[in-house]
Amino acid sequence: MNMNHARKGLIAITGTTGVGKSQLAIELARAVNGEVINADALQVYRGYNVITNKVTEEEAAAVPHHLLGFVDPTQEYSVQRFEYDALQKIDEIHRRNRVPILVGGTNYYIQSVLFRKSLISSSSRRRIFTENGLDVDDLAHEDDYRGSKETAVERAFEASKKNTSNQKLWEELKRVDPLMAEKWHPNNRRKVLRSLEVSQTTGRRHSEWVQESEAARSKEETLRFPTLLFWLYAEKDVLNKRLDERVDKMVERGLFDEVSQLAKDLKDAGGAVSGGPMDDFSIGLKQAIGFREFQHYLRTIEAIAADAQDAHGGSDGRIVAEKEAESLKDEGLVDMKTSTRRYAKRQISWIRNKLIPECRETANKSTNAHAYILDATDLDNWDSCVREKGTDIAERFINDRALPDAASVSPVARALFADIKDKPETLVSWKRYHCSVCSKTVLEAKDGVAHEVWLNGEDEYHQHLRSRQHKKNLRYRKRFLTNVGDPPSQDDDASVRAKRANIGSSKDDDTRQ
């Protein structure tokens, strides 16, 4: 092995949930003298091995693993901190003359490590803070990683807005920076706050920083290391079946015990993660698929337990409540499977439109990222389609030998690469699209909560328009208009509203946000 190259190179493995990324990472680590660095935003948290789908202790013991299960579940862990922690681990592994293998499905974590993409450098921020009379040193006392001063400013800004609703924050951003407001959903509080904070602390719109940064990145060397990227891919129908079975296995392994324990731990910690409200499922371990989906079930179980302690609680009422709990449990399982499939679609969209195009953009630069697709559709052929091909390519990369043409690896790779853009979508050119067909009003939604469907980027939007669920909802909408007429209003007669609300509702609706 060329140790000089090993000290500089990096292998990264990405793909949807449920395709075998961890297994390949361990196999490659054994083959090329590597160590695994976790790049899954939920697996950094301690405990809760079922809901986060961590590798088992036996699997992890086969090779060294890093950044796995080390963050307190009641705390929030940011991409900025991951970038710093991962870069430290990579340096340590290189110093041991071993190969770092970055693996996970949180693609923006992977991208933050591979590419230098800071929109606002530390030196620029410090200069701007000084010009605006801000003393950054006073805000950094509790942080322990590089970039803490900037992060402390973000936290202070977030704290100043804690009593402002999501909608009002978004409206404020729309006034300050309409281009960035177009990119974020009003409920994406973290990103709305980030755009507002950048604009207010620097005196420049966030969109201006983004445009400037993207223009610079197209010309400069942004890749940190010579990189070999593997995308583990599985055909949609096979993957969806595999994901559904995976959820069933999680239930067998104790999913409900973990969900209940997590709810209790968060409640004991004050019902919040780093200041976020209990019903904010966009931060910390509350993002885990399977936590949000069972909240109604957990509350019902809690109420049943409380009634059982009440001497006046009737057996008939308890039986009804228990039946309702079972029904909510079944609905939660359906929702969890739907959310898992939807998450897999988002992962694929990111890889196709951002990660691989950005790797391709390094072709004419001095440091290159080589992207390969391995077909993990048929697990019976794992050795020949994934392990053997992956190991051969990795050994060639580490030893500085000629690499095969990426499209020649398999028919699946050839077809996918033919459909991937050469340049990544930029944030400025990227747009969010709203699907009014699949969105539901309060009156239409079975749970009485409005559900809006937003698609990220043109590619995802057009894929959505071709999806079976969209076509199904379109048929419902057409029948809705034919049978009832105009959409319901708040002034409609209750019976008419109820009739209209039932049209377009479906037990297997795939558009819940």
From the helix content, strand content and strand pairing, which structural class follows? alpha/beta
Count of helix runs: 20
Helix proportion range: 40-55%
Span between N and C termini? Answer: 49 Å
- Rg from alpha-carbon coordinates: 24 Å
Structure description:
It is a single chain. The protein has helices at 3-8, 21-32, 57-61, 79-95, 107-114, 122-131, 148-160, 166-176, 178-181, 189-202, 206-217, 236-252, 255-268, 295-308, 315-360, 382-398, 411-418, 457-466, 468-483, 494-502, and strands at residues 10-15, 34-38, 65-66, 99-103, 227-233, 369-375, 432-440, 451-456. With 513 residues, the protein is of the alpha/beta class. The protein has a 6-stranded parallel β-sheet, sandwiched between helices. Strands 7-8 form a two-stranded antiparallel ribbon. Residues 1-7, 119-123, 132-149, 272-276 and 486-513 have low confidence and may be disordered.
Short structural description:
Residues 1-7, 119-123, 132-149, 272-276 and 486-513 have low confidence and may be disordered. The protein is of the alpha/beta class and 513 residues long.
